[in-house]
Amino acid sequence: MFDAAIIGGSFAGLSAALQLARASRSVLILDEGRPRNRMSLAAHGVPGWDGVPPTDILARFRADLAKYPTISFMDTRAEEISGGLDAFTVATETRNPVHARRIILAHGVQDVLPDLPGLAEAWGRTVLHCPYCHGYEVKGRPLAVRASGPMAVHQAQMLRADWSDDVTLLTNGVEGVDALASAGIRVDHREPLRLVTGDGIRVCFQDGPDAEFAAIFTAPEIDLTGSPAGRLGVGLSEGPMGPFVRTGPMQQTDVPGVFAAGDLATPMWNVNYAVGDGARAGAGCHQSLLFPGFIPALEKEAA
């Protein structure tokens, strides 16, 4: 029986584990080795690690944890979580059940990328999701935003304000965007057929000439269906790109003994947020072990 099982061993999960390790609590981290930002060449805006590949940062995090004897790793996928407070069971892909008093969900989310040929291959490199994370590296060059919802206009305005004077919105059928022209943003209603990666990225259209950009920004939809969080039935809120786990001040969920941190527990995705939320989840988990009832679960929302 571990004090805590942490589902997911990326930035949030490892940060949570570190807090518990320093309290000498027994922790098992279950991780299948597919961090969400594994396609990115570098993490940006991370103090002390700006421009460093995410995999290198995670390797350092793991090395930090290796010196704590109460931390264990299992390289496998968590399939199902059953039981309850002080008696959870995690069924794994390798069929080895894990028993733990507390659960920290940190397994991230599943990106649902637009169905456009060539986009998946460029994801994280020249097709990007966040100006704060990647905008500086392509500033001053032609940029595009592929609309996937209401946030596209917001993103185009941000890029035009501080990253580039040359911004195009690919409307993808979204209406009511022509007013952007007054802000110096081009609007292209043509339907893209495919993306071709080169020095930047080329958009091939059904009608008219191709267009070249340094990068295209787009917001993927996310899905928690079938994930450990989804199967456990923790309460969700709806964000602009999809659902995320509802949490309290110490990252507690509405299931007693279950905490959540990282991309699955926020509508804003950033390494810094994941590390901070993970630390809070680890501390909250530890205090709930020491003082039962001190950190109550959130109330269930009315159906």
From TrEMBL:
The keyword Flavoprotein is annotated on this UniProt entry: yes
Keyword annotations of the record: Flavoprotein, Oxidoreductase
GO molecular function, one term: oxidoreductase activity
A Pfam cross-reference name: Pyr_redox_2
Domain FAD/NAD(P)-binding: 3-276
InterPro entries hit by this protein: FAD/NAD-bd_sf (IPR036188), FAD/NAD-binding_dom (IPR023753), Ferredoxin-NADP_redctase_2 (IPR050097)
UniProt-listed PANTHER family: THIOREDOXIN REDUCTASE 1-RELATED-RELATED
Name under which the protein is recorded: Thioredoxin reductase
